[in-house]
Amino acid sequence: MDLAQIPLFSMLKGRLGYLSERQKVIAENVANADTAKFVPNDLKPFSFDAKVQAQKMAQTGGASMMAATQAGHMAPKNERRGLGSQFKTQKSPDSEMTLNGNAVVLEDEMIKMTEARMNYDAAISFYQKSMGLLRMAARRPGG
Fold first, then answer.
1. Is 99 within a domain?
2. With the CA atoms of 114, 115, 116 and 119 taken in that order, what torsion angle do they form, in degrees rounded to the nearest 10?
3. N or C end of the chain, less CB within 10 A?
């Protein structure tokens, strides 16, 4: 049985993908801390409702989605595979801005990174405990 078919593991996979992508976006913000006129990005918060809507759109095929008509075309964003492609970034301008127009505040980015890391660790812990319960349920009685 594929673990992705179990709703709990499917949600954990989505959550871990979101947190991984958020860490990448925050790392890009930190890397561009000295870039002129750079506005930091962040991901929209992960929500169960958005995950359910995305699942419904994937099942129905979405009426207004683009499609690659020839094999050499790049896949549209809605067809790209991988966890990162399903999350959308948004500009997160801050009240602080340097003279060159850069709006990255390293302290805020480090707080966001720490928060994402703690949430990631919690999700991994929950995943490991759930796997332990499945293993225990799959064992023979008395074995």
1. no
2. 120
3. C
pLDDT tens readout for residues 36-77: 999 999 988 877 676 667 667 766 765 555 566 666 666 655
Per the listing, tokens 């399903």 go with: 86
Its domain, for residue 126, covers: 1-65+104-143
For the whole prediction, is pTM greater than 0.85? no
How many folded domains does the chain comprise? 1
Identify the three-state secondary structure at position 41.
Answer: strand
d(CA 85, CA 77): 7
> What is the rounded average pLDDT of the residues 15-25?
94
- Tell whether 143 is covered by a domain: yes
CA-based nearest residue to 28, from 36, 19, 18, 38: 38
